[in-house]
Structure formats: structure tokens, C-alpha cells
Amino acid sequence: MGFGHMILYALVPIFVIMLLGYISGKKAIFSAENARSFNKLVLNYALPAALFLSIVKADRHLLFEDIKLTVVSIVMICACFFWAYFSCKKFFKHTKQEAAVCALIAGSPTIGFLGFAVLEPIYGFNTSTGLVIAIVAIVVNAITIPIGLYLLDPQDSSTPAASGVKPKKSNAFLNALKQPVVWSPILAVILVLIGVRFPVEAEPSFTLIAKANAGVAVFAAGVTLSAQKIELDWEIVYNTLVKLFLMPAVLLIVGKLVGLQATDLQMLVLAGALPPAFSGIIIGSRYQIYVRTGTSSLALSTILFMGTAPFWYWLAKLVAG
């Protein structure tokens, strides 16, 4: 697929829908509270359905072929996460809690919100696409977010439950596993491994809600950005460079060295090149930590992503062969 097709079918729709959400937020048609409700719809229903449906169609042979993909994703994304954490403390003299939120933003891609929106128009809605998105989503939701929450506050490293009772830090990992966006792809992988065939008759019910994933997520991102004051300084630029350049670069280099399959490598690089995870902004806002710098880093990364995505698509395709 050429650059023109990628820009027209993958990036322009994202920009248009995000702009629509931004304008709607500025005109007070939708509020930040509405955006949180949209995000809840995506994270609890649409994205889990999309991940589950795309993976459950796989076979065991394909899953075992992707062991390298899983290892590279875990090691390199976690490495970028800790690089963002320690560099925030050392270079910009932030506290441990501020560095934790920085790592959740600069060191985690927004795979749950934009993964399908970017990869599906380019590579199609298939098992390989779903596996790449699911693996990266599991790394972000089941590994880096619990670590970030632990580092954020040793006395209360998890977001409050609906009842208002704050769970203990030791439950951060288990709390992440309770989220549909984490357990749904894991369940799909288990079903494939034990040879359970998903009934074709049930697919339309999953497909209908899964199709809402990308559009609703991008629109909600626009509404969220409309409620924030955007600023610019060297730290914001640095966070943007870590997210949009360092992460995809290390994924490309290491993925090529270990011999990842060409298409998987291309998709993994694009997944790593996505803007920061919106969950980092949500967590920072909850504790009122690193809000200004984090929000501005998200905004700058999202805008520049429109230009860096074609670059990484071209380079990954060139390197992968």
C-alpha cells in the first residue's frame, strides 16, 4: 500500500474525527465527563470484543509462531517505560510520583484507543493484526500500568474502586487482570490453545460492537484534548521524542535482529509509534500529578503523529523487506 492510500484511509479519518470531537468539546456539545463515558464504552466493551474476535479465529500454530513478537514487545516497551521514568527523575528533577505518571504517558502507546484505527485500514481486520494489538495491549494494561500505579504512590498505587475504597498496592496487577481489555484477549488465546472453536453464528454480535471501537475512541480523544490548555517546553518535546521516535526505533531494531516476520514487525513498529496512552492522563488527573506537562505531551504527540506515522510505515516496510 502506498503513502497516499495510508494517509487517506488511515490518518485522515483519525484527524477528521478527532477534530470533530475537539470542536464538539469547545462548543460544549460534549464534556470531559462525556469523553470518560465514551472511553469506558471502548475499554469495557468495544475494544475487548474487537480483540477477542480477531484472536479467537487463530490456530495454535500461528500463536506459537508469535513467541518472538511477545518477547520483543514485553522487553522493549518495558525498557522504554523505565527509560521515561528514570530520565524524568534525573534530567528534569521530578519526584518519584511525577516520574511514574511521565512513564505512563511517554512510555506507553495508546494501543487500546488507536490500535485498530491505524492498523486495520492498512493491514486489514485479521488474526495477525488482532494479535499484535492484543499483545501490546496486554503489555500496557497488565504490566506497565500496574508498575506505574505502584510507583505513583506506595500507599495507594491503584485507582479507587467504584465504592470509594482504595485497593492496596499489592492488588495492582490483579486489578489490571480484571479489566475486560486485558482478560478478553487472554481468554481468546486460551480458547485457541485448547482447540475450542468459536461459533460462526456468534460473530455478528461481537462484530457490531467491535466496529464502534476506533471511531468512538478517536472522537473521545478529541473531546478530552479540548478541555486542556496546551503548552510547550523542552520537557514536553523530550517526552514526545521518546514516545514517537525512541520506542518505534528500538522495536524496529530489535525486531529485525531477532527475525520477526515482516508484516508483524511493521505492525509492531506502528503500534509503538502511536501517541501516549490516554490512561496515563486519566491517572495523572485523578491524583493531580504531572497534569500540565502530561496533557501537553499527549497533545503534541497526537498532532505530530500525523507526520511521523508515514515515516515509520515507510522505514519499517523498507527494513522488514
Write the layout of secondary structure elements.
Blueprint: H1 3-26, H2 32-56, H3 60-65, H4 67-92, H5 96-106, H6 111-123, H7 127-152, H8 172-177, H9 180-193, H10 203-210, H11 212-226, H12 234-257, H13 262-272, H14 278-287, H15 291-320
Helix pairs in contact: 1-6, 1-11, 1-15, 2-7, 2-9, 2-10, 2-11, 4-5, 4-7, 4-12, 5-7, 5-14, 5-15, 6-7, 6-11, 6-13, 7-9, 7-13, 12-13, 12-15, 13-15, 14-15
Outline:
The chain is mainly α and 321 residues long. It is built from 15 helices and no strands. It has helices spanning 3-26, 32-56, 60-65, 67-92, 96-106, 111-123, 127-152, 172-177, 180-193, 203-210, 212-226, 234-257, 262-272, 278-287, 291-320.
Helix content: over 70%
Oligomer: single chain
Number of helical stretches of at least 4 residues: 15
Radius of gyration: 18 Å
Shape: globular
Q: Quote the average pLDDT.
A: 82
DSSP strand tally = 0
Question: Could you name the CATH class?
Answer: Mainly Alpha
Task: Assess the beta-strand content as a share of residues.
Answer: under 5%
Q: In the residues, how many domains can be counted?
A: 1
Q: Provide the structure class.
A: mainly alpha
Named CATH topology: Na+/H+ antiporter like fold
Q: End-to-end distance, in Å?
A: 14 Å
Low-confidence runs of at least 5 consecutive residues: 156-170
| Order of H and E elements | HHHHHHHHHHHHHHH
Per CATH, which architecture?
Up-down Bundle
Strand count, sense and barrel status of the largest sheet are: none
